Amino acid sequence: MFEKFLKIIIMHLRRLVRIKNNLSANVIGIFKLLRPLFVYHPSTYLQYYFNSYRLADKNPQQFQRKIYGPIQLMNLLMIWLALRHAYFAIRCYHIHDPLWVVINSDLMVENEFDNWANIFITALIIQTTLYLNMLYLNNPTTTILDHILINRENKLFYYPYQYRHNFAVDFIGFKMKIWLYSMYLFKINVDLYIIGLSKTAIEYIWNNQNSFFGLGTLGYIRLIQCLIHRFILFIGIYIYGHVNILMATVGIAYLIVVYVFFWQTDQIIKRGKKRRVMWRMLKYFHIRHTKNLERIQTGNVYSKALIIFLLLNIPFNCYLLIFVLCKTITWKIQYLAGSIIAEEIICIFGIHLLFATANRQFQKSSSRFMSILAEQHQHFNSHIDLANRLKIIHYGQNFHSKNKYGFTYGKLELITMNEFLKYSLLYSQLLMFIYINVVFPRLSNQH
């Protein structure tokens, strides 16, 4: 046990040495990875991301230098920020020094949040680190998404390559274009956060010039320290924005892609039902349905991302809601908190609903398959041999169980419409609880 722990420490120390030796290249690499968010172009946003995986396939050494190195440096930066905010949460219990808060960029206390805010920020930074590694180092869905979204290879879908009355590639491209353009609002909010948080620091320094410019060298050291902490924190905010936009974008794209595959597979049953489904039709369905199961397995990275997001962001969302409703704050802080609440609600309910809808489409075709298989079980068909017939029957028996197949909450239960409604009811009950026990008494006291 001790030897394994020692090996892990040595491995991380070697990584730190490599990062230190290539520090300038890694810093430049971070800005290149964040460039799609700095200069946001919806038409090319995903292109930059897929290029990193193309580089990994074509030239692993360049990938190590241009992508892996900067990612490791970003991990270190985010871990450092997480530790800082955890320390801020502990420190504010004992000491409250406005000058120290501004110099060290404790933005939560600076903007009149309490210590719980720093705890939640620590959790969101950890979420960002997990997403960063999932996206750039362990995402098996990039190949199919690259072929569909960038290369627009329509023949990856089943003949006649359509979803309802449109080509599948055109349908997915249109939906993703709408989503990427809507992300302008999120990008603008990130910029506004940076501007607003910079303004509060400038105002404090201007109103307390003696603490920065009236103490000689010590004052200038304070000023430089404040600027460095702000700069690092703002880079962390951009990393958070980029990683969350990217995870939501590729996650939605993959869910739409698999939904189209599920729908096309379901059409086999529907077409066959009109002409008394034969075993050959069931065989085609079996082949496609098996591939759909593989696609679900490949997309488990997004299931893990969803459960991480729900566990960390639902409590933070409720906290912000209580903060906005129950505390007298400036309109700037209201806008900051309100925009974060709105963005989190989109993911808590919107993307959550997409998972449930995709699973519903998959289960719909599974149920039809089992029903038709039961009807056709007694009919002999000379066009399919006994081995294939037994294989299809065995496949159908696997689906006749309480353990349904589909996207899950990590390794927990299946994401279904019922589970989505449970989350919705739980959230609405929590809002009613907040209003009755927190907001209503406050309004009563005012009268």
Describe the structure.
With 447 residues, the chain is mostly helical. It has one domain. Helix content is 81%, strand content 1%. It has a two-stranded antiparallel sheet with strand order 1-2. Helix 12 packs across helix 15. It is globular and about 85 Å long.
Count of runs of 4 or more consecutive helical residues: 16
The SSE order reads HHHHHHHHEEHHHHHHHH
Largest sheet, strands/sense/barrel: 2 strands, antiparallel
The structural class is: mainly alpha
Instruction: Order the strands across the largest sheet as they lie in space.
Output: 1-2
Straight-line distance between termini: 64 Å
What share of the residues does DSSP label as strand, in percent?
Answer: under 5%
Kindly state the percentage of residues in helix.
Answer: over 70%
User: Any idea how many domains?
Assistant: 1
Q: Whole-number average pLDDT? A: 76
Shape type: globular
- Which runs of at least 5 residues are low in confidence (pLDDT < 50)? none
Number of strands: 2
**Cα Rg:** 26 Å
How does the SSE layout of this entry go?
Layout: H1 2-21, H2 23-38, H3 45-58, H4 60-91, H5 98-103, H6 107-110, H7 115-137, H8 142-150, E1 162-163, E2 166-167, H9 168-207, H10 209-213, H11 217-273, H12 279-298, H13 300-326, H14 331-376, H15 386-399, H16 417-446
Antiparallel strand pairs: 1-2
Briefly characterize the structure.
The chain is mostly helical. The chain is 81% helix and 1% strand.
